[in-house]
Amino acid sequence: MPDFTLRQLECFVAVADHATIAHAAGALHSSPSAVNTAVTELEKHLGEALLIRRRAHGVTLTTAGRALLPQARSLLAAARDLAPVTDGQVRGHFMLGIYSTLSASLLPAILDGFGRAHPRVEVDFTEGSGDELLAALDDGRVDAAILYDRDITGLPHTRALYQVRAHVLLPADHRLADAERVSLRELADDPFIQFDVAPAWQNTSALMAAAGVSPRVEYVTGNYELARSLVGRGLGYSVLVNRPASDTSHEGRKLVVRELDPAPESVAVVIAWPRGRALSRPMQAFLDWAPGRVAGPE
């Protein structure tokens, strides 16, 4: 029977998350010396150095520390699940990762709807690129992630939520605004607004290459709403996947969405979660709730 404690694991995870012992102590409402002692005791019990401590430079995880981190998160989540359930309600904490361009469209409804269905579950979220979310899944910083299936590498479990296709975004006064469909060849000489969050540009670049087009890149941004606003100003066109419910830019300017010709393959928005990791009750509740409720604009 291991003789380390949940508190020691909690301190270790907090230090890993906050990168300094002082910040971890603040998050845990404890003292830095107590947190440092807890992690040191955990290292003694395991016979491994988990942290590299550098004065004035915070801490970094050793190889052993990186290996332990997802297991520690799982153990802490399982311990929270042991709280008795007497009223049939799911309790606990659930950390959701979501692709940055999907968050504004999906998160409000998720937090509202899932919160109403399971009011005793505490939900937190983090946004990121596909690569960032997969890394967070791998090391246990998130329980599940919502992203495009084209972003998936490795072998996590996935469950499809809905399908989308890449489209062309044009300013309202563009010469092709009234066309039913638009080919990338027709836009080859137009300035292009490049949305550059991995792997969005790589996928758009593949579409361009398949069409035999080298885009005339005018501006590059990792800000989704800025890309839409630049198009709204008539400064270029863009190719995007996520489509908000409103076809207006952040400035209130009209945008025109047109299907691509030929139509690209659809991509799925999915929930992904790690293989080989036990599902907490809040996580299972979310997987049961989300399909049919988390969907893109009509």
TrEMBL record:
It comes from the Bacteria. PROSITE patterns: HTH_LYSR. One of its GO terms (cellular component) is protein-DNA complex. This is LysR family transcriptional regulator. InterPro entries: LysR_HTH_N, LysR_subst-bd, WH-like_DNA-bd_sf, WH_DNA-bd_sf. Keywords: Activator, DNA-binding, Transcription, Transcription regulation. Residues 4-62 form the HTH lysR-type domain. GO terms for molecular function: DNA binding; DNA-binding transcription factor activity. Belongs to the LysR transcriptional regulatory family.
